[in-house]
Automatic annotation (TrEMBL):
CDD domains linked to this entry: NADP_ADH (cd08285)
Pfam assignment, any one: ADH_zinc_N
InterPro entries associated with the record: ADH-like_C (IPR013149), ADH-like_N (IPR013154), ER (IPR020843), GroES-like_sf (IPR011032), NAD(P)-bd_dom_sf (IPR036291)
Organism, scientific name: Methanoculleus thermophilus
Similarity remark: Belongs to the zinc-containing alcohol dehydrogenase family.
GO MF entries: adenyl nucleotide binding; anion binding; metal ion binding; oxidoreductase activity, acting on the CH-OH group of donors, NAD or NADP as acceptor
Any single biological process term in GO: small molecule metabolic process
Named cofactor requirement(s): Zn(2+)
Protein name listed in UniProt: Alcohol dehydrogenase (NADP+)
Residues annotated as domain Enoyl reductase (ER): 10-295
Keywords: Metal-binding, Zinc
Length: 357
């Protein structure tokens, strides 16, 4: 079978591999719709998680089940499915403690395009099919559905971890597709004022649609000064970090009120200087004592999460397809889509590849 792979750090290309084998509780799926992620860009072009040779990329997919193992109960060949980006081992200790994305060590639930071949292939393997696949609802568009496995799941987690309550003032730093999903998540959780920080015009438009009340350009002055100015010096109850380099954590902490949560969902692909540091502001952090709480998380995966996100969309609470700014048709266009994600033109939010209608 054919797949789009990371050949080594800095290089991608099409390769041929054996179709994966199916275990008794697993499924083999072929893609219906795929989307490249900024994480693929960090992984390949920044070498963020280290060297990977001939590893098939991609972790955002809708698919059609091709084969299931003998012990799989709820899925059969031909079923149209949502495939979560994160596919935990649900019987592990970390999962039982409530951290399924971290099974088998930090980030261990992230298998596709990290520790095994990803979904940018003619066929891919899904562990524990009954736990890690969800049925694609009848009537959900592929452009909307393909945002669930990672964008909605991660962005909404950003809002959940930020402990947003009714009327909370929230700042979302970064409004790519992850930050935009966080804006939508913040609104759904009852936020009052939502500051959305970013500049790409397409994203600014969708941010307003998803509930942002104030748009802040980090290019036109300090993010912190602009938000403090608009809040009478008070700052915000919750910060969701969804873009920028390591220095963005300085802004996040400096704009947060005491008692707030700084919810990081950013993937820091590289650090500052030789020692790879993510800096915190000593004074802004109250010398380490200001009750400014940093929380981090990897995208939640699994079946129930996907079913719940699907309900959010099918009940009309938000429309994720607004983020699909560039739609490619055909598996062969995958490389173009990934290169576009790397290039990040000003009119881009998220490229999507429709493999089969
Ligand atoms: P994008 O590159 O599309 O968006 C990044 C956003 O950050 C843009 O809006 C950009 O602004 C903005 N930005 C850049 N610099 C700053 C700054 N200094 N201050 C504030 N905002 C800034 O990324 P994605 O939305 O696709 O992904 C966001 C991050 O989430 C990535 O690191 C990705 O790898 C990570 N991720 C994490 C996951 C997890 O499980 N935790 C899962 C999936 C993704 P502009 O409008 O000017 O471009
Ligand atoms: Zn992703």
């Amino acid at each position: 079978m054919k797949g789009l792979a990371m050949l080594k750090i800095g290089e991608i290309g099409w390769i041929e591999k054996e179709r994966p084998a199916c275990g008794p509780r697993d499924a083999i799926v072929r893609p219906l719709a795929l989307a490249p992620c900024t994480s693929d860009v960090h992984t390949v072009w920044e070498g963020a998680i280290g060297e990977r040779r001939n590893l098939i990329l991609g972790h955002e997919a809708l698919g059609i089940v091709d084969e299931v193992g003998d012990e799989v109960k709820d899925f059969k060949p031909g079923d149209r499915v949502i495939v979560p980006a994160i596919t935990p081992d649900w019987e592990t200790e970390a999962a039982q403690r409530g951290f399924p994305s971290q099974t088998g060590g930090p980030l261990g639930g992230w298998k596709f395009s990290n520790t095994k071949d990803g979904v940018f292939a003619e066929y891919f393997h899904v562990n524990l099919a009954d736990y890690n696949l969800a049925h694609l609802p009848e009537g959900m568009s592929l452009e909307a559905g393909v945002m669930l496995p990672d964008m909605l799941s991660t962005g909404f987690m950003g809002a959940e971890n930020a402990r947003i309550g009714f009327g909370s003032t929230v700042a979302v730093l970064g409004i790519g597709p992850v930050g935009l999903s966080a804006v939508a998540g913040a609104r759904l959780r009852g936020a009052g004022r939502i500051f959305a920080v970013g500049t790409r015009p397409a994203a600014v438009k969708v941010a307003k649609e998803y509930g942002a009340t104030d748009i802040i350009s980090y290019r036109e002055g300090s993010t912190v000064d602009q938000i403090l100015d608009k809040t009478g010096g008070a700052g915000v109850d919750a910060v969701i970090v969804a873009g920028g380099g390591p220095e963005v954590m300085m802004d996040a902490i400096n704009v947060a009120k005491p008692g707030s949560v700084i919810s990081n969902i950013n993937y820091f692909g590289s650090g500052i200087g030789d020692q790879d540091i993510i800096p915190l502001p000593r004074v802004g952090w109250g010398y380490g004592m200001a009750d400014k709480n940093i929380v981090t998380g990897l995208c939640p995966g699994g079946r129930v999460r996907m079913e719940r996100l699907a309900d959010v969309v099918m009940c009309g609470r938000m429309d994720p397809s607004l983020m699909a700014t560039h739609v490619f048709k055909g598996f062969d266009r995958l490389k173009d889509a990934l290169l576009l994600m790397k290039e990040k033109p000003r009119d881009l939010i998220k490229p999507v590849v429709i493999v089969e209608e």
